[in-house]
Amino acid sequence: MGNPESAYRGIVGRIAAAAERRPEPAGEVRLVAVSKRQPVEAIRALAELGQRDFGENYLQEALDKQPELADLPLIWHFIGPIQSNKTRAIAAHFDWVHSVDRVKIARRLGEQRDPSLPPLKVLIQVNVDGEESKSGADPTDVPAIAAACAESPALELRGLMCIPRPGNTTAFEQLAALNRSLPEPLPDLSMGMSGDFEAAIAVGATIVRVGTALFGPRDS
Ligand SMILES: *Cc1c(COP(=O)(O)O)cnc(C)c1O
């Protein structure tokens, strides 16, 4: 991508405009810049423009990149599938985890998060559209996972997350409806990527995860 600054300013502006078009003012939308398979120089360039939140999908890649960026006040979001043998490192090296999809993962993160750190902010990833290729909890499992998060003082349950198949923007409404149906609706909905973040914001996203629209195509 030619100019990271104009791409960044463009996305930030579109997010703010989409948030303003909402019928009820619902606060600011947090942009998570998805930096998987992007070099540290690209992350640094965006950080210099003021971006703070970065999302990574692959643990080892993130652990390789984070030390090179340790001089910057970045907020790290883990957004990829979680194997249970990776929870200890995720709990140690991230501020947010968007992809908690089973009770066992919630329990392990809660046990392994250093209690002297701020609580790990977690979202429950929900498979709202029955997408076979993606992970995520069945909507009926959300109360049990939420209860497991509530049991741990080292976790702060923030909300729900989804990765619907491309074009299925009704999944965003389904996630918002699922949240409203909980006994205590959660403050955050992490939904919307490069191609559909405005549709997600229109129905209540508070966090959007944008990669290629910010950074250009990923290294393969
Ligand atoms: C890669 C990824 C994104 C960003 O996708 P883009 O289409 O590049 O914006 C967002 N969320 C998750 C979970 C991802 O894996």
TrEMBL record:
Lineage top rank: taxon: Bacteria
Residues of the Alanine racemase N-terminal domain: 28-218
UniProt xrefs under PROSITE patterns: UPF0001
SUPFAM superfamilies in UniProt: PLP-binding barrel
Cofactors that this protein relies on: pyridoxal 5'-phosphate
Alphabetical keyword list: Pyridoxal phosphate
Residues with the N6-(pyridoxal phosphate)lysine modification: K36
InterPro entries reported in the protein's UniProt record: Ala_racemase_N, PLP-binding_barrel, PyrdxlP_homeostasis
Pfam family, one: Ala_racemase_N
The keyword Zinc appears for this protein: no
One GO MF term: pyridoxal phosphate binding
Reported function: Pyridoxal 5'-phosphate (PLP)-binding protein, which is involved in PLP homeostasis.
Family: Belongs to the pyridoxal phosphate-binding protein YggS/PROSC family.
This protein's name: Pyridoxal phosphate homeostasis protein
Originating organism: Guyparkeria halophila
